[in-house]
Amino acid sequence: MNMSQTGVGGKGGDIIKSTLASVQQGVARADGSLQLTATTLNFSAFNKQFGLGPYSIALAAIAEVTKCWGKGGGILPVTSDGIEITLKDGRSYQFILANPDDWIALLRQPS
């Protein structure tokens, strides 16, 4: 489900694009909301008890954005609708979401 919004303030200013997404770290996974602003990518998990997020990633800190597999149990590929964001400091984040190619195009745009 893609819930695009504009003109709604969030961390980093007005929201350019928003969707439901899952963050994935190894076997751990949490559903939440992913929002793109002009300066940041924000993820907020619905269940705060898992310790996955919230994340606020500065777009200027992103080194690379690629497609990746969403995995069941951290090992079994279950969907190709994922993106991996690698930061300049080497940290990486994986999100499973609808229309990953659209998100990749937006996140690869020069700031």
What attributes does this structure have?
single chain, 111 residues, mainly beta, eight-stranded antiparallel beta sheet, 58% strand, disordered N terminus
Describe it for me?
- The chain is mainly beta and 111 residues long.
- The chain contains 1 helix and 8 strands.
- Strands 1, 2, 3, 4, 5, 6, 7 and 8 form an 8-stranded antiparallel sheet that branches.
Count up the helices: 1
Shape: globular
Low-confidence stretches: 1-9
Distance between the termini: 27 Å
Count every beta strand, where a strand is a DSSP E run of 2 or more residues: 8
User: How much is the radius of gyration in Å?
Assistant: 13 Å
Helix content: under 10%
Secondary-structure element series: EEEEEEEEH
Question: What's the pLDDT, averaged over the residues?
Answer: 83
Q: Which band does the percent of strand residues land in?
A: over 45%
Characterize the biggest β-sheet: 8 strands, antiparallel
The quaternary organization reads as single chain
Helix/strand class: mainly beta
Q: In a nutshell, what does this entry contain?
A:
With 111 residues, the protein is mostly beta strands. The protein has one helix and eight strands, in the order ββββββββα.
